[in-house]
Protein 1
Amino acid sequence: MATDVTAQAPDGTVLRPLKQDEWDKWYDSLMRAFGGVPESAEERSLWKRLTEVDHSLGVWDGDACVGTAGAFSFRLTVPGGAAVPTAGVTMVGVAATHRRRGVLTSMMRRQLDDVRASGRPLAALTASEPAIYGRFGYGAATHGLNIEIDTARVRLAVPPGTDEVRLRYAVPAEAVEVCEAVYARTVEERPGMIERLPGWEQIALLDAESNREGASPLQCVVAERDGEAVGYARFQVKPEWDTNGPAGTVVLRDTQALDPAAHAALWRFLFGIDLTSKLTAYGRPTDEAWQYLVSDIRRCGLRVRDALYVRLVDVGAALQARTYQAPLDVVLDVEDAFCPWNEGRWRLTGDAKGASCERTDDQADLALSVRELGSAYLGGVTLGALGAAGRVRELRPGALAEASTAFASTVAPWLPHGF
């Protein structure tokens, strides 16, 4: 919770927790900072319900809101399957009239102090501009795959059992509980996934006509085996025609499956929708299984993009909240100028069963900043790669390879949706 303290911010502005009756003015300031394009009434209403006012901050210049920052109370899956309390940093914006005056820094300072006071060891965000948040200790920890598949020329080789999966169309709003039950069963299997709080299931159903760009209303299919839901896909179809005939696009919004056969059945369906020859999707897992079923990966238009940025607010608590693929005993010399309580040497010991991380005076094996720890924390960015970039220094021969192996995840971390 944001402490109920009003503080002087740069240039005589005032930084303080948001009040419920200020939300509309606060949100209007945010929308203007992001270009001023209005959202649908449905989307605005949903974000108003989801905003955690107690964890939101505003910077005010007189009656004008000139800075916004919020945080959601998430639980983020980490390697080993634990769900760790995390501040989902969101709705950060500064008025163009007040840029380069320290407004953002003042909000980040106050927010991380509040997150620490609340006992949450992690903060995470998605960055509108990657260059902004590194100086506050956030490191890129997950990536998403954007795809554009030529389904007229690419085929799928499906695994045994695929034909046993039955698909049925469902009204998206009526199938939301079934889909959420499938989603909930997948959360602990992949680092970076978020336990959805009540109300967050509605994000996937937002379907304003103004945002469709010529595509159909949202559609949904549910995959079932023996009467039990084992997967789902939400998508739109954008009809198009050229001189050769139909050339429509399937726009995949969301899909989850509980096993390989259900996954293959859903993707085979999406590949085969009549009057279409292209499938697009945004931010899918970088190791998603369909890539190993296709006949021609070069015709799948793969593009990787950064997604979730992670910040260790409490280094000791965060590092012992996850498990490690291989036995590990390493002393980390951590640099953290923005949150100096993290600075110094930490002994991390752990394995696949658990970990401990305590202060130590022992000689350091690796030296790195909290930003690198954030990047490596979910197991998708290796400490070895960061070392090759000169961002992790090896002080004991062999320590970097040992730690890099231990920190890795067997599956790529993935953020399933923005916030």
Protein 2
Amino acid sequence: MHELTVSPWASLAYLVAGVCFILALRGLSSPASSQRGNRFGIIGMTIAVVTTLVTHVPLRSVAVPPGNPHDLMIDWVTVGEILAAIGVGAAIGLVTARRIAMTAMPQLVAAFHSLVGLAAVLVGVAAYLNPQAFGISDLVVPMIGQPFAVIHPVSRIELGLGVAIGAITFSGSVIAFLKLNGNMGGKPIMLPGRHVINLALLAGILGLIAYFVTEQAPWVFWTITLLSFVIGFLLIVPIGGADMPVVVSMLNSYSGWAAAAMGFTLHNSAMIITGALVGSSGAILSYIMCRAMNRSFISVIAGGFGAVADTSGGGTAIDRPWKRGSAEDAAFLMSQAEQVIIVPGYGMAVAQAQHVLREMGDKLKAEGVRVKYAIHPVAGRMPGHMNVLLAEANVPYDDVFELEDINSEFAQTDVAFVIGANDVTNPAAKTDKTSPIYGMPVLDVEKAKTVLFIKRSMGGVGYAGVDNDLFYRDNTMMLLADAKKMVEDIVKALD
């Protein structure tokens, strides 16, 4: 395959694609503009893909011996293979997007991250095996022996970093997918001496990348790749389920940096721009998530929530007195309230109760009740999980508030209606220093006059593995049932 020189119009097209990606990120920062942001992302990616295909048309020589550029013609067989691969990928993406349940969105995102990481590794392998096709080497003919391609030193750094980050992203995302999908437990798996092992592997990878600059022997390249796959696995296995929103955003950042590194290898400015945007935005999002949980990024990587759950004694529910209510009780209390704040969590997502929840909110509004929705930054299994579900149910954007904007209102609220949000409403985060979630900012639902808490049963605990003291407060009424069924019964009682 021969590479054509990138023309000025191609550089301009890549620049336009980069601007579209920036506008996409800007649009996705708000539910109200998210659809517009998605459209900009689609337009930008279409421009980038078409430009790359046009400027890198596969050619073959029809002359014998080859070498005359005027004797080149389009290699239609290779073109057909490329278009077929694009068609298969597009079909898989379309079918997946139409069939995926909103409850499975976190694991889908993790799966996508793994594909980005794997793609970076495969591109790096192809560039290492055939560097001349990528324009990153010079042909050297030794005094005795066959000619071989010497990869440019700068390109070796790009290759090493791109493959390492891509491999870490792939194996880490696979573990995140298995945890989110329930194939692995949400509790952290603590390996003996994991910190020493991880530091040793990281130092080894960086050392080998430095050595790769001076020696492009195959064993160096493949060892970098193998160790990176291993450390990606070891980094995510010890992280507990409650830290998954940070893990998802962190892996998003990794995938971006892997793409940017491969962009340098391919001399593709669109990949560099896109990768840098994804990498930096993912890093910023990870920082925001860590702040929302009062955690440091290093503490998350070192092992997540649940690592010290045994010290808190919160692994199982506590046998203490609690009050049970019915759908009729909940309907009466909310219909008599001036303000109701609804707090959705992963339980709502599992039950797919967002649509009937909006219906309940609409009925309460019709009776003159002020209805607001309180969203914790790490509610669910990925950043923005609850926002996506509420937007799908057409909940007005003006009714949805983040933690810092609504926390002060709970003290003046008649009813806090919690549907499946456990860890993010646990008062122990503010009072119990032995709790693994101590210090995490939580929604102050316990300050409301009445707390209605939907939970399937009293026997389980939250994803962080700790019991919720809120269940046993005097102002809390437990509504034990499937979340969707309970809200449906409340809606009927409101009629």
Protein 3
Amino acid sequence: MKKTLLALMIASVAQASLAAPAPASAQTAVAPVREVDRIVAVVNKNVITWQELQARVNEAIKQLEAQKVTPPARDVLQRQLLEQMITEEVQLQYAASGGLRIEESAINQAIANLAKQNKLTEAGLKAQLARDGITMDRLRSDIRRELTISRLRDSEVASRVSVSDSEVEQVLKSAQSANRTEYHLASLLVSVPERADAKQIDQLSQKVHKAQAELNAGQPFAKVSAAYSDAPNALKGGDMGWRPATSLPLEFVQMLEQLKPGDYTDVIRTQQGFFIFQLQDKRSGGTPMLVEQYHARHILIRTNEAVSESDAKARIDQVRDRILRGAKFADMAKLYSEDGSNAKGGDLGWVNLGDLVPEFEKAMVALPIGQVSEPVRSPFGWHLILVEGKRNQDVSSDHEKMAVKQQIRARKMEQAYADWVRQLRDSAFVEEHLDDK
């Protein structure tokens, strides 16, 4: 938990008083020196402390070692993680100012999912965490932070990103669409602030070329990425996963085709900063597949500055009550839904798994056909869902078009989110005190 500046000053004074020299007659032994907590960064009105940073560093080292990635030097990792914590803190403050809150039920569900993924009961998960030195309170705090940032990303960026049919057609008509290759990539990013001056850009250029020199000297890409990259995937060794050729710019695909697995690109300058990419592997894609589809309708009541969480929930409850008493779902959608599908009675048509936000999709999948859901909270507001049909559809003919649209959207979202976070970070008041003694 963040401490106020006053509280930290009081703690420092108290610690200093306790450590004050005793009278000469009493100085018969020298007490061991203990390192006290201190401020390592001020972010607007909050602070990040040395102990908070060290806890994050220890977690990162365990995470890297579990992935068999040699951690960078501790002082390098500290600086990387401090910048990450500052960026997170800026986002969390923005979320709090906008009234974004994570329900305890969402955290409970995330913990249950985590236990299930690890084939543990919740009691077993708690015992495992205790062996790793992590309390349940700490886990809940970490999950709250991650869910907050995830919802903030969806609400601030996802809803504003759109892909037109012409964009999809342009990719499909290009020579790139004939390339069924998929690439397993890793990246290293040195971000450049939006209003960086020539001196800053030169310093950051030197940083990325220092990273490149370490790669040229034979250092593993994952280790160098963890030491230098500003991207969120830095502590995963820069791993980006598999990316199809159609999701990447044509010039970049042409560059990748010149590389062998294990090779990396030269430094690439983009609007976001300086990149180095590694080609880890590649494979042939384009295999036809069956897709599970749902024919769904929904009603959405949004939350915003004028409509509180409780008011939106009360309104969706009232709409659900009317449907249960005999009103038609489509009629209620036309009257009350605040989504673009309202004119069609909330009809979303046939949707594929993966097309919708996780909270909505989870409720939709569990819903029997013809039954109205309980109110469902997503980053967009409160929903009622009605599933009118389910099927496994062979989408060989139109799968490519849908896949291309998703890939373009994912790329645009990634870029839009990075730009938004950079602007938010640049507008914050930040003081770093990591090197203060």
Protein 4
Amino acid sequence: MPTKLVDVEVATTTRRGVPAVVLAATGPELGPGGDGIDVSALTGKTGETVRHDRAWTLGVGAGTPADHRAAGAALVRALTGDDAPKSVDVLLTPDFDAEKVRAFVLGAALGGYRFKVTGEDARKRVGSLRLVTGDTGFEEVLTSAALKAHALATATSLTRDLANTPSNVKDPRWLTTTAAKIAEKVDGLSAVVRDEKWLRQQGFGGVLAVGGGSARPPRFLELTYGTTGPHLVFVGKGITFDTGGISVKPADGMHLMRTDMAGGGAVIAALIAVARRKLPIRVTGLVPCAENHVSGSSYRPGDVVRHYGGATTEVTNTDAEGRMVLADALAYAVKNLKPDLLVDVATLTGAMKVSLGLRTGGVFTPSDAIAAQVVGAGARVAEQWWRMPLLEEHAEAVHSEIADYRQCPPGPGGITAALFLQKFAGDVPWAHLDIAGPARSEKVYDEVVPGATGFGARTLVELAEHYSS
């Protein structure tokens, strides 16, 4: 780790002896043809890759940014195998702009991603792409676009790496110390890891309760970047494995719970990307980490847990552990960090998979402006979000008769979970991002491959860039 991605650069000349890729669009202007390339049999369908001796044609469909992202991913997958070239020149069409370059590079960088724990990966892959433009005056703009896209792809890839790591390796200590080691190598980024003793002294009852059933104790990671500008605080759920606790999950699909810290991974990767891009902003990342296990010391339904800051929660389902650890972190952020914007990211509720499917994240916030900012940031980096309601008629269900709050009240699960978290965000501008659906995939589509998708990291980086400008 980290997984190596395809390198991309922009140039104005092709290289002698290097294979070329010619872009072909649908419609009457199908493909530019070229030496030795017969376009008569091509459809120009997005991702259609055809080899012609020392050249390829690549379909880009209608030529939208989404088409170019999918085409870039398809090209890298096609340039895999024993005869895969080390590098190719991609001949850009005259209508290519910065947005299309960002999309193409994002797809190309991520489309060939493959996570492998042991053994050699015998498959040869193309190592680099050179995007060739005939417009010498546009090279600098396209290069800037390509660099940004590659930085976003790197953040996505790191999130995938962290989430895909098996949980016999990835416990709370491993996740936090690995993040801290990476952060140490990035100028301007600092990391502090707190252990269970500190958590107990500070009163992080939610994190301690969730982690109490595991022999591998919880941790709390705080990443800090910048000293000036608006202060953004990102909080990511860091459950390194989730059995459901005493409210144990069904066996089918439990192996996927190694990715239940995908929100925490997105926060870690976003902080690293923001620091590497040297954005003029202040950002803090908080990742409460625990392993939700079953043992004699597990927390129980019916328990009352005291969170950081003193608020209490009546536990009704130990499989609703994500909101327990996020509550502590949100309360810590409000009291100690005074954020201008507080955003939490989590694979939180199965209800969101039912509501929005597996490719769209849910946005909960009382602020129209913040909702628009998140959705807009996602759209610019090819991550799809949909605003969900914080229905007032369900707010009363969050209150408990024996504690301040009830952890898992009846009603629409994604909404009541967000209403619970809102109690700990206080009056700070806040958004809750539920990525239970798009954080994992079982099949290939666009730049996504099976396993952890890395969803959310790019949106956080883009949101930080929006606030920094």
